[in-house]
Amino acid sequence: MEFEAEIVGVCVNDPFTNKAFADAYKLPFSILSDYTRETIKDYDVFHEDYAGLKGYTVAKRSIFILDQESKLQYKWVTQDPAKEPKYNEITGEIER
């Protein structure tokens, strides 16, 4: 299945860890580093004091689809890091 879309991952890890992860799993997209947590806070997808660790902020598992003008068209967020999205729903949104 081919789409006219750009996929970008965002992770709070440092850029070196993100690159190693992308290389190890041969991901066909870049993973950008949000080590300052600015982006996850802008999109309101963060857990503060995660796992009871004071000051440890992590990203919630989430998916955003932006249009060509960078306007948000779709958002999926879960509180459960083990939960995955309905991928057919995501591809349906991209096809629109």
* CATH topology term: Glutaredoxin
How many domain units? 1
The CATH architecture would be: 3-Layer(aba) Sandwich
Order of adjacent strands in the largest pleated sheet = 1-2
Secondary-structure element string: EHEHEEEEH
Number of β-strand runs: 6
Tell me the structural class: alpha+beta
Low-confidence stretches: none
Distance between the termini: 14 Å
Sheet with the most strands, sense and barrel status: 2 strands, parallel
Blueprint (SSEs and pairs):
Elements (H helix, E strand, L loop, with lengths): L7 E4 L3 H10 L5 E4 L4 H5 L3 E2 L10 E2 L2 E5 L5 E6 L9 H9 L1
Parallel strand pairs: 1-2
Antiparallel strand pairs: 3-4, 5-6
Structure report:
Helices cover 25% and strands 24% of the residues. It is α+β, with helices and mostly antiparallel strands. It has a single domain (8-95), classed as Glutaredoxin (3-Layer(aba) Sandwich), CATH 3.40.30.10. It has a two-stranded parallel sheet with strand order 1-2. It has a two-stranded antiparallel sheet with strand order 3-4.
Briefly characterize the structure:
By secondary structure, the protein is an alpha+beta fold.
For the structure shown, list the relevant keywords.
6 strands; two-stranded antiparallel sheet; 96 residues; 24% strand; Glutaredoxin; 3 helices; two-stranded parallel sheet; globular; alpha+beta
